[in-house]
Amino acid sequence: MHILSNIRRRRVEQNLIKGVRKNTQKINNTRNLTPIQEKEIKQYWHDLLGIDIPLDWHRYFYKRTGVYSVKYIPTSLYYTDLIGRFNKFQMNEAYTDKNITDVLLPKQYQPVVVLKNMNGRYFIGDKPVCKQEAIQFCSNITDVLIKPTLKCHGDGVCKFSVHDGITTVKGLAIEQLFDSYNPNFIIQRVLHQHPKMDALNSSSVNTIRILTYHSEHEVLILYSVIRIGKQGAEIDNETAGGISTRINPDGTLCKYAFGAPGNDNVEKTDTGVVLDGYKIPSYDKAVDLAKRMHLLLPHFDLVGWDIAIDLDGNPIIIEYNTWPELSQSANGPAFGDYTERVLKEIWNRPNTRWF
């Protein structure tokens, strides 16, 4: 079993390295690390954790951004050796079911839920109902969205309305739409975002991604970025053409945003908004909410929060991620000034990730 685990682990590492090398080739410049810089990186990680790391991610981020740092977190190290020390993986699948977010966290900080389907069973509020009751309840609704509750990256998210049982999704009947998402999905009211968030892109809900770390007696903000959708896209993810840029502590945006590899140093949104210095509304409220809510998830010391700002300036949790991707192109080194503290605190913990 131990040998099989090591084989699987090595396969994950190799696939990640292969992927970052491919992405590096998409970046059109000649910027490369110097031999001195490569030596500094190796020495830093050897001194910190006593390990040798692949330099592929340091090369990638430096080539994309022009910002050199020994503190970039190699994705292969993060996925194989770090995330399983931050968070208890045996708890991960249940806690990341989007259908239980309003059970774990206060409902007033989340979009309004219309209907849930959990393991094939339907619920309106806390009441279990049969499929026909669910169909009847959703036969005439507007301004809602449906999404799978056990998937990520915005997969399957779709806005729609229903009139007399027929949806705006390719003319499907509401029962057919249910069947296409069965057995785990949620229907929520569409969130109408603050005008300053809407100005960045009106077709998607543009979210603040806040990475928090629960350290002993406090929750630290490791970084915050804004994720902005491509014009016409319904989600703000990079995979759908979205871009991200770092949010400064005062709530203003940095000059450059980054999308998929090769979509670098973007200065304006598709709607023409200049990013540099743009003020995000209620940023301080979003930070405070993420810190308070993290205390309600004691099995996970590293959490990524996707937070929208509604029309009234209230922060709304779209979802939380217990296996968050790291936004190091947009932000810089994921753990920033806390890198040494964070890694020293978790490194001697058991790795709960299975291979």
Structure description:
- With 355 residues, the protein is of the alpha+beta class.
- It folds into 3 domains: 2-89, no CATH class; 94-98 and 193-346, ATP-grasp fold, B domain (D-amino Acid Aminotransferase, Chain A, domain 1); 112-189.
- It contains 12 helices and 12 strands.
- The strands form 2 sheets. A 7-stranded antiparallel beta sheet has the order 3-2-1-7-4-5-6.
- It starts with a helix and ends in a 9-residue tail after the last helix.
Which term fits the overall shape? globular
Helical element count?
12
Computed Rg = 21 Å
Query: Could you give the order of the helices and strands?
Result: HHHHHHEEEHEEEHEHEEEHEEHH
The CATH superfamily of the largest domain bears the name: ATP-grasp fold, B domain
CATH-level-2 architecture of the largest domain: 2-Layer Sandwich
Average pLDDT, rounded to a whole number, is 95
Describe the biggest sheet? 7 strands, antiparallel
The beta-strand count equals: 12
Low-confidence stretches: none
> Which structural class is indicated by helix and strand composition?
alpha+beta
Question: How many structural domains can be distinguished in the coordinates?
Answer: 3
Named CATH topology of the largest domain: D-amino Acid Aminotransferase, Chain A, domain 1
The order of strands across the largest sheet is: 3-2-1-7-4-5-6
